[in-house]
Model the fold of this input.
Amino acid sequence: MRLATLLVPGRGETVAAVSPDGARYLPLDGTGSLAERLAAPLPRVDADWETAPRISDVRFLPIIPRPGSLWCVGLNYEDHRLETGRAKADYPTLFTRFPASLIGHGEALARPSVSHQLDYEAELAVVIGRTARHVAEESALDYVAGYACFNDASVRDYQGHSSQFGPGKNFWRTGGFGPFLVTPDEVPDPQDLPIGTRLNGEVVQASHTSQMTYPVRELIAYLSRIHPLHPGDVIATGTPSGVGVARDPQLFMKPGDVVEVEIGSVGLLRNGVVDEAQADQ
Done:
């Protein structure tokens, strides 16, 4: 199943099932955000997709617009760690994002007015489906509601202002998240997915989730020791090599660019880039 959080004229924020080809949507009955709905069994959807509304007529919101926690994992692909020149760590490198930094599929990333070093990062996002506390690695995937594409776009000079990644990872409208939440029946193994980025049609990242230093199972188990993970919480699992800051010459996103993150059966996340002054307020 594919789910989305949409902004539908006349309805506002709407949780919807999406057709297999991603072209049409069906609002789900009931109220509450997608995060709230994940705490209960998802309804079965028997839709006549040919008569359902076209998804091209609505806007995408982030899959989970207001996650209770959004953990991000740094340096989780060895080739990316090596290209950054950072030391190998004994445990996952963690930082957090705030909801104000997120945007949906098709919306514009905002290059901030204080920096032109806006970099792309393709990542697999994991959305938690039931409360997880002190879970074992062997059962960790049982707590997953689904997977989505994530672009952990980073403002590199601000990221380097201190040893903490947070400042460069939380600029307004820099986290692309979507377009769909794809349930585990369509992604039986999160470590068996090609992952990559195209910038203006050119491949700039190409890797495979099997290359994660800390796979999804380990990340869920580790984070569940720190605090309970609740339905709708998100884990962005890190990016492979090829980021712009590590290139010679460096390659940063600029207004007019189009960046696409594509991950196997999870989907394709597309965002344009504008200057902050031109972004929706």
User: Anything to note?
Assistant: The chain has a mean pLDDT of 94. Residues 80 and 269 are 21 Å apart (CA to CA). The chain has five helices and 18 strands. The longest strand covers residues 144-152.
